[in-house]
Amino acid sequence: MLHPRWHRHSLHCVLPPYLLRSIAQNGSSAQRAAALRTSAVDNTFRSLRFVSNPLGQRSPGRVIAGMMAESQCYRSIYDVEGQETFPGKLVRSEGQGATGDAAVDEAYDGLGATYDLLWEVYGRNSIDDSGLRLNAHVHYGRNYDNAFWDGQRMVFGDGDGELFNRFTIAIDVIGHELSHGMTEDEGPLVYFRQAGALNESMSDVFGSLVKQRALNQTADKADWLIGAGLLASSIQGQALRSMKSPGTAYDDPVLGKDPQPGHMRDFVRTWEDNGGVHINSGIPNRAFFLVATQLGGYAWEKAGHIWYEALRDTRLRPDCGFARFARITLMAASRLYGEGGAEDTAVRDAWNQVGVPVTREKVAVAFTPPQGVQASKPSTRRPQA
After folding, report:
1. Of residues 12, 176, 278, 305, which has the active-site annotation?
2. For the domain that residue 272 is a member of, what is the CATH number?
3. What is the per-residue pLDDT across 107-120, written as a single tens digit (0 to 9) for each?
4. pTM over 0.85
C-alpha cells in the first residue's frame, strides 16, 4: 500500500499527460515543441514535490485559527513575464482594482470566487481552513500549455494560441487547481488509480461549483464542462472534460478523442497518468452531476455539502476506491438530511447509474440538521469572471 504522505508529492496540472502526448504525436512542429516543453516543466515540478511538503508545514502565509473574528481573503497576483522563476513582479494585491491585463484580473477574480464559495457556503477559511494566502503567478514560461497547483501557489501559462488559450480564461480551472490544495489538506487521497481519480474528481466538482455560483446557475442550467473557453477556436471540442457526458468534451485530429468513461464497464486500466487519474475521474464526476440534477436547485448546496462532508469524513482512506467513497457519500447524505429522504435516494441512484452499486455500512448515523444549505446568492463583493 502506498504511504499516506505520498498524496502530497503530486503536481496537480489541469492538462493531463495523455493530451500532451497526443499533441506531441499529432501536432505541428511548433505544437510538438510546446507540448514537449510543457511536459519537461511539469516533470521537473513533480520531482521537486518529492522533497517538499508545503501544506504539512505552517507557513508565513497562514493566519492562525482563532486570531481573527471573520475570514478574510488575501490574494497576490504576480507576473513572471514569460520566465520560469518565482515570484515574479507583484502586480495586484488584495483590494486593488483591475489592471487591464486579462490574465492578472482573471486570476484575481477566480481566486476570490473560489475563496467565497468555500467560506460563504461551507464555512471554510481558505483552502486550508486556516486563512492560507492565495498566490497566483501568470504569464509563466513561453507557450506553456498548462496550469498547476504546486502546494504553495497557482501557476498559469498563456497557452500556445493555436491549441489552447490562456489558462486563466476558465474560472472552473482556477477553482479546480485550488481545490487540489483543499484535498491535500483535508482528504488523504493518494494520487494513484481510483483514489487519484477521486482526487481529480473532487477538483472538478468544486471547480464546477465555483463557476456555477459565479454565474448564479442552477444545476439544470449549468453546462457541466470543465475548461470551457480554454480550447482555441480551431480545435474540435468544447472543453477539457464533461461531467454530464464524460468522453464527449473533444474529438480533434491533434488532441485525439476524449477518453473519459462515465460508467464502470468502461473503466480504463492503464499505468499512464498515475493509473488514469484524469481519465477515470469521469465516473465519479458523472455521479455528482446526477445527484445535483436529481436534487435540483443550486448544486453547491445539497450535493456540494454531501461531497464536502465526504471529503472530511474520517473513514476516507488514502487508497479509497469508488465503492467506498460512494458509501461515504451515502452516509454523509443521511447524516445531513436524514436516512431515506430525497438526498439519500439521489446519491444511491447516481452511483448505481455509473456502475458503482452502493450499500450502507453498518454504522450508526445520527441525523444532524444541515447548516448553511439554504439558497444563497453569488457574492457581489468581487467582479465575476
Report:
1. 278
2. 1.10.390.10
3. 999 999 999 999 99
4. no
